[in-house]
Amino acid sequence: MTNSLRPHGYQRTPLPQEAAPTPPTPRAEEPGQQPSTPPAPSAPSAPAGQKPKQRDAFFDNAKYLAIVLVAMAHSWEPLTDSSRTAEALYMVVYTFHMPAFILISGYFSRSFDMRPDRLKRLVTGVAVPYVLFEVAYTLFKRWADDDPTYDFSLLDPWYLTWFLIALFVWRLTTLLWKLVRWPIPLSLAIATLAAVSPDIGDDLDMQRVLQFLPFFVLGLCMRPEHFQMIRRRSVRIASVPIFACALVFAYWAAPRMNSAWFYHRDSVQELGAPPWTGPVMTLALFGCSVVLVSCFFAWVPRRHMWFTVLGAGTLYGYLLHGFLAKGSRFWGWFDNHEWLHKPLGEIAVTVIAASVVTVLCTPPVQRVFRFAMEPKMAWAFRKDPAEQARSRTTTAA
Fold first, then answer.
1. Per-residue confidence at 340, pLDDT binned at 50, 70, 90?
2. CA-to-CA distance for 277 and 269, rounded, in angstroms?
């Protein structure tokens, strides 16, 4: 049923996928690295007895639930050719799970500027993991897919790493979006132009960077009161029939619509569609995504739950589960086990995917892989003048 021009998750030449408290100084807002509010290096430490800023359970809950949906959708992708229901669920989830992550990333990028400590964090929390996992995925494909000649390329993100390079680019443009008068319409215009521009090419997956850009800009423009509006009881009630209608429409559209539209990685020409569909689909998908993201946020718990702590590790779950998701295709698990395509098999696959990504978000896994996800790399950077002055003062005292 899935009418995708390229196998989902592969590089474009044989190519998601596949995301907080008050406005802080974000650590990294990938599909899910923990946004935190560490004191700036030049700021004095908090007085003794003063409580540190608390994380907002709502955003941690949202990121955990979204990463579970990411993993579940990846497990459904091999089932979509034989199950119309799986295809419908797949399309609905793809409409909002990455937009939700990107919106949260934009929201916690509002305080980003070119201050040295924040640029360092951008490098260590986004650029370095991108390089490490791009290399790791390439080595994994060479081994697991028996393709020893597969080339390394930092310019052509493979599978899940596209989000990291996209976040790097988006965050560097934050000051520009704060400067312009109509940031959301401008970002939509850029996304529309990208959708009808096949010559953009594959470098840094710029099609996805530009087509997903409006969600990042929307997050930059949001304020705490907007999330309060979304979480009202009336919105929560209205979200039930809205999701039901979305599922019914997706079930109808499954055999008729190319699911590659939801990946935002191709121009309309590459999708075999006429140019006029670019503006129409860009605006239509943006509108549908915003509505479903709002419905999703409306049902995210506000209080601390058993899984709230896992929201700080969703980048780990996002990047690490990709090895299992790809390995299942390389090793033919879905082709060799027909029972997986039966209803009970589909349920089992869904539960396994949710369980695996949950484990990968846990603190023990974070401690093991922190060297790759959140390297400190103090050796790579000069100390800024304020930090050097503080060190001299401390030594003199």
1. confident
2. 10
Q: Which of 251, 285, 253, 247 is nearest to 266 (CA)?
A: 285
Side-chain half-sphere of 91: how many Cα atoms within 13 Å? 30
Residue with tokens 């999330």: 227
Contacting residues for 235 by C-beta, under 8 A, at least 6 apart: 229, 294, 295, 298
Q: pLDDT tens digits, residue range 51-108?
A: 446 788 999 999 999 999 999 999 999 988 888 999 999 999 999 999 999 999 999 9
Position 9 pLDDT exceeds 80 = no
Question: Which are the contacts of 256, defined by CB distance < 8 A and separation ≥ 6?
Answer: none
Reduced to 3 states (helix: H, G, I; strand: E, B; else coil), residue 183 is helix
Burial of 99 (0-12, 13-18, 19+ CB in 10 A): buried
Residue with tokens 């596949």: 18
The answer to whether residues 63 and 305 touch, using CB atoms and an 8 Å cutoff, is no
CA distance 91 to 87: 6
Distance CA 62, CA 100 (A): 8
User: Which string of DSSP letters, residue by residue, matches 120-170?
Assistant: HHHIIIIIHHHHHHHHHHHHHHHHHTT-TTPPP-SSS--GGGHHHHHHHHH
pLDDT at 117 over 80: yes
- In 3D space, the residue among 165, 159, 168 whose CA is nearest the CA of residue 16 turns out to be 159
For residue 236 the two structure tokens come to 């929560």
Smallest CA-to-CA distance from 216 within 168, 181, 179 is with: 168
DSSP state, residue 12: S
pLDDT higher than threshold 60 for residue 12: no
Q: Which of 120-129, 270-279, 376-385 has the lowest mean pLDDT?
A: 376-385
